[in-house]
Amino acid sequence: MHDIRVVRDEADALRAAMQRRGKLDTFGPRIDRAQLLDRERRAAIQAVEERKAARNVASQEVARLKKAKENADEFVARSRTLGDEIAEIETGLTATETELDAILLELPNMTAADVPAGDESANIVMRSWGTPRPVDGVKPHWEIGEALGLLDLPRGAKISGSGFVVYRGVGARLQRALMNFMLDLHTTEHGYSETWVPQFVNRASMTGTGQLPKFEEELYALRDDALYAVPTAEVPVTNLFAGEILDADRLPIALTAFSACFRREAGAAGKDTRGLLRLHQFEKVELVRFCTPETAMAQHELLTGHAEMVLQRLELPYRVLLLAAGDTGAASSKTYDLEVFAPGVGKWLEVSSCSNFGDFQARRASIRFRPTPNEKPQFVHTINGSGLAFARVFASLLEHHQTADGSVRVPEALRPYLGVDVIR
């Protein structure tokens, strides 16, 4: 969420940011409308204050005249008229502020200066690690997963519908192994504190991290309660500090959490429907960091490196993309996507988006810190990313590490958690 002063004083920069995202036609008129509403809001506030001051004068005169046993009808009527005018203006002010707040909640973040303009075709490969395996002769993960008894896609669809999967036997153990491996890595080597958070959150939490109002149709909502199934643990973890003022000496705060993630994938019909590439429910370990504005860029790089380490330990070739402005999430100012290569489907698969949100989420959720005891509180900056999402990592493991006899070699880092060196 933007400070209203950005709309008021930096509207040209905001329009330029929307242009870089390719969204000026959508948000340019809303910026204009927000500026008009802001002027109307300030004028209404001034009008209310003027009338309240005049009413106070009239009330004092009524008291003086009544004390002197003189007729105060004129000032009583004046006070009543001013009260009616105040009520009318405040009703309009409420409507103005509601509309203005709605626009501020919809406007995307401004991207960082080093984020390229344009759509996904302008994404930049920053670096890569490992050598992708040739695709010739490699089976897709759904075939080898079924052959080894790891996946049961038909029964997942039977009990829940398309986009849901059942893991069985060693496949289920592999999910649990990924969770424990990632959480242990991030807590013991990378310094994160583990949290176990609710899988359902309220509307305020979804709004705080930017899922609402923009992604309403993407979310699963409970029919009888004002709760949503989390699309990522980013939502509950970030909102742990909603409405709080943190001590500066606590920063940076680094938290990690496992959660199931639920996404309706509205509008994605027909895309990547085979296997584990696009699911309505998947599991992942999330990384979240809270920091000062001055350290945010370095903290973003640090978190991205922590996510990369998971792929290196799993011996999976990957690349890091800097997303162009038009491909960057609405709440993010800068995002690196980590893509792992899956030779069985011949694709690079996104397994993590590591984003720097600046103060965009913290302003919505009112998460602040006090630099020193005598200074005014400032908004923290939030950083988060998957560390990592399981389903596509699972797919890549089966495809990249499969052998000629149909078995799958288990990376050394996973062996203590899975209990086998090879899945046969």
Molecular structure report:
- The structure is a single chain.
- With 424 residues, the chain is α+β, with helices and mostly antiparallel strands.
- It folds into two domains: 4-106, Helix Hairpins; 120-423, BirA Bifunctional Protein, domain 2.
- It contains 13 helices and 17 strands.
- The protein has an eight-stranded mixed β-sheet.
- α2 (11-21) packs antiparallel against α3 (24-67), α3 packs antiparallel against α4 and α5 (141-147) packs across α12.
Predict the CATH topology of the largest domain.
BirA Bifunctional Protein, domain 2
Q: Total number of β-strand segments?
A: 17
SS strand fraction: 15-25%
Order of helices and strands: HHHHEHEHEHEEHEHEEEHEEEHEEEHEHE
Q: How many helices does DSSP assign?
A: 13
Taking all Cα atoms into account, the compactness measure Rg is 27 Å
CATH architecture of the largest domain: 2-Layer Sandwich
User: Sheet bearing the most strands, described?
Assistant: 8 strands, mixed
Helix content: 40-55%
Query: What is the typical, i.e. mean, pLDDT?
Result: 95
Shape: elongated
Spatial separation of the terminal alpha carbons: 51 Å
Uncertain segments are none
Whole-number total of structural domains:
2
> Under the CATH scheme, which class of the largest domain?
Alpha Beta
| Widest β-sheet, arrangement of strands | 1-10-11-12-15-9-8-4
